[in-house]
Write a structure and sequence with these properties.
Layout (H helix, E strand, L loop, with lengths): L1 H7 L1 H7 L20 H9 L8 H10 L7 E2 L2 E2 L15 H9 L12 E5 L4 E9 L3 E5 L9 E4 L3 E6 L15 H12 L10 H6 L1
Antiparallel strand pairs: 1-2, 3-4, 3-7, 4-5, 5-6
Helix pairs in contact: 1-2, 3-5, 4-6
């Protein structure tokens, strides 16, 4: 009977019997909000007064692919800065601004290079190692174990890029509440005992 109803009007059937996402990541696919600093700044200013969830923030650190480039508590990759060692002067709004606009301020250590080869091919990526004869370039942040080795005698031109290897829009699939939990996790340097999570513990 269900199959007959579906075949008769698939759209109406799925509207009445929505499919449950078995993979948690699938629940994020239909979201797309281009968040701006002005959208979230007010909430971020009061981050220490809301019921932030450490567990949600930690989970989102993986879901939003932060862990693919950053380390936290010994887990993750070394493509970007180790966020366990986030400088003390960084306030929540500073962290949020960097996430929303990663190219605004780039640590020189993590600036990518634009490399033009004599063959005419262009390679963009992070130079993770350099010696007298070659460059070791990470040109795909999602595959940090795959390093491309380029001989220096193949180089035609090389310049530092002003565009961060960290992509924009990493928060677009998250809700306001999720962003705040993720931000609390990052600002706390992954410390579950941080004051940022006390209100949540008291509410449990």
């Amino acid at each position: 009977e269900s199959l007959e109803q579906y075949n008769a009007d698939p759209v109406a059937y799925l509207k009445e019997h929505p499919a449950e996402a078995k993979d948690e990541l699938l629940t994020y696919l239909d979201r797309n909000t281009e968040w701006k600093l002005s959208d979230l700044a007010g909430d971020v200013m009061h981050l220490g007064h809301r019921s932030n969830s450490f567990d949600v923030g930690e989970k989102l650190f993986s879901v939003a692919s932060c862990i693919g480039c950053h380390r936290m508590n010994g887990k993750g990759a070394n493509v970007g800065p180790d966020l366990t060692k986030l400088p003390a002067e960084y306030k929540p709004v500073d962290v949020l601004q960097h996430i929303l606009d990663p190219s605004k301020k780039i640590d020189r250590k993590y600036q990518s290079n634009l490399i033009v080869l004599k063959s005419g091919k262009v390679v963009a990526g992070l130079v993770v190692k350099e010696d007298d004869t070659s460059l070791h370039v990470l040109d795909n942040p999602t595959a940090p174990d795959r390093i491309r080795v380029i001989a220096k005698d193949e180089l035609e031109e090389r310049e530092v890029s002003e565009v961060s290897i960290m992509p924009k829009g990493v928060l677009n699939k998250l809700t306001r509440e999720e962003i705040l939990d993720l931000l609390a996790f990052v600002v706390s340097r992954g410390d579950k005992k941080s004051d940022l999570f006390k209100a949540h513990h008291h509410g449990e």
